[in-house]
Amino acid sequence: MLNFEYQNPTRVIFGKDETKRVGKECKKYGEKILFIYGQGSIKKTGLYDKILSLLKEEGLLVYELGGVKPNPLISKVREGVEICKQENIDLVLAVGGGSVLDTGKIVALGAKYDGDPWDFFTGKAEPKEKLPLACVLTLAATGSEMNRNAVISNEETQEKLAVKHPVLFPDFSILDPVNTLTVPREHTVYGIVDIIAHVFEQYFHPVPETPLQDRFAEGIMLTLIENTHRVLKKLDDYDARANIMWCSTLALNHLIEAGACGDFATHQIEHELSALYDIPHGAGLAILFPQWMKYVIDVIPEKFAQFAERVWGISREGKDVKEVALAGIERTKQWFSEIGAPVSLKEVGIGRENLERMAEHATRLGPLGYTKKLYKQDVLNILEMSL
Amino acid sequence: MLNFEYQNPTRVIFGKDETKRVGKECKKYGEKILFIYGQGSIKKTGLYDKILSLLKEEGLLVYELGGVKPNPLISKVREGVEICKQENIDLVLAVGGGSVLDTGKIVALGAKYDGDPWDFFTGKAEPKEKLPLACVLTLAATGSEMNRNAVISNEETQEKLAVKHPVLFPDFSILDPVNTLTVPREHTVYGIVDIIAHVFEQYFHPVPETPLQDRFAEGIMLTLIENTHRVLKKLDDYDARANIMWCSTLALNHLIEAGACGDFATHQIEHELSALYDIPHGAGLAILFPQWMKYVIDVIPEKFAQFAERVWGISREGKDVKEVALAGIERTKQWFSEIGAPVSLKEVGIGRENLERMAEHATRLGPLGYTKKLYKQDVLNILEMSL
């Protein structure tokens, strides 16, 4: 186990109908709320009206920023920062999935900064403080509701970059599984792929002596797989949705990574894909991950074999370590297919045309990853294996 | 899964030789430190001198409160509160195991309260604020380093009671496994029993749909069992000590309980034993737990069978649920014996003489537990089964 520091101050309010507390909880932070949301699905489900009336019941003054896109844009963040500064907003309330929550994080951060919020992504500025931030989650996927990460795209530079800083932890997040009962099948699947990808990225590392971290990661994967089958049979299965939601939060709240070392290379390569092609993040991950696994298998074959055995129940009998490991990877790819995620670039209509450019761009600041350092040629190899 | 609220603000600094940071970290909170410790083992190991010199290097003014006993006393807490008030202490630094940390918690709490600190245990006062609290852990057991609980004994009333309140979370805790390498075999074992008992208490509940909580609990148990065997072969095995330490923290930092419901009846019954006889807490738990399990088995037989299968690897083949469940309980008792913990009251020299009195006292405020409500006669039955 590596030495580590761990702290996560976010207050989680979890459970059926806890959304009703949003007004009272927000009021603790002030009177002026900037309510951020996405492209209107919360208007269709009625959540928009519900939140608005809960906020108004408490006498809160509500400003709005709607229209956040799935790969959220820095231009939208700038709009939000402008409102915060002009209206002296007390609290940012982000209602949506990871894209809305990440937008909320950077809006809250930018509101307390004199320059352009993109500065935090280029390293020109270091986060210091943010406005209070509340979240109501409507999609189990990114873990943004209880972590210090935010990913934003810049439409001018065609970059998709992350900021990670303790100041970005939400002050509180309402995790009400009821708000995910209406998520369509496709988005449910992509969310699930994102969750399991986060676990992969903190599990397939070469750090020795992390048995508890391994068991927690395996626990999330097993729970997620079991509940994926349930939710795909019945999209409004409350218990399955609740279990998946809690998996999503614990998959990326820094706990299973503590003492180990995350390797987020696949996420970084995927960001190139979804920045350029605007495909769903989860689709890109499902395509790339089995290929990344095969590419790095020889660094940690025993870890891949442990995964095959404990998560997929693959017997070691009559196989050597690498055979077991490969069987686990194959099973993962097959599972992505079974649940309806693409497993090749071809399936989402992407050819060779930009692979080199993406590999170049992905590694422009240096090699990616930790388990195996990936240089431009490695990234290109993985992308070609994904065709 | 039940609805829940979860927040844990404690900053954990974990790893080899992280103790060296104690001076600099404490200095962030002020100049005057009350250094609390136990009965001198840290003087023998050199940790006392090391901490003192690290604090003095930073120019800090150090006051001391030594001599905290294994079942820590309210009289010692009162001494500490007195020093805090007289000397205007800025930070309480507790260096030791759970008894020292719990003393630190209530000293820090009492320092900000006008009345007697026992008031928090009787319900006469509600915790509101405390002095900043830092911990350096020297024994993996109670989880006090990252939770909101404290247990203190009152020598006058022969009571051992708990306070649980968010204000009691330590501000930061240094978890340096090196500080546990010299813990003698017996205390190591009792610490381990305490850890697994905490997991039992949050795992054997009747709440449906807690698959992730179950997997996390099982992960802690499996890791603990594997590493117990390693540490008992080689008491100064750093990796085994590190894994056990992280197990102890996660076993009782409220995470695995979130969405489920703890049943701490066995701990409460044990508090009667150790309040009256001053036996090690872990010894009392090892004696009582298998009997409690047998006593409540019919409420949740499937959960006990799951435990038998997943934790002890007991096959279900050819057995009905209750047989599997009972085999798991028997294996637990056998394991306690194997690692050197007592499994009957007789082994620690306790007879029938005070069983009735303890059962009476344990239930004086009402029945115990959640999985099965235990009235006086139930507690008496469990104590008699433990003879």
TrEMBL record, chains A, B:
Q: What keywords does the record list, in alphabetical order?
A: Oxidoreductase
Using the record's annotation, list all stretches that form the Alcohol dehydrogenase iron-type/glycerol dehydrogenase GldA domain. 9-177
Check the record and name the PROSITE patterns matching this protein. Answer: ADH_IRON_1
Name all Fe-containing alcohol dehydrogenase-like C-terminal domain ranges. Answer: 188-385
What EC numbers are recorded for this enzyme? 1.1.1.-
Q: Which residues cross the membrane?
A: none
Entry's InterPro entries?
ADH_Fe/GldA, ADH_Fe_C, ADH_Fe_CS, BDH-like
Full protein name = Iron-containing alcohol dehydrogenase
Lineage at the top is: Bacteria, Pseudomonadati, Atribacterota, Atribacteria, Atribacterales
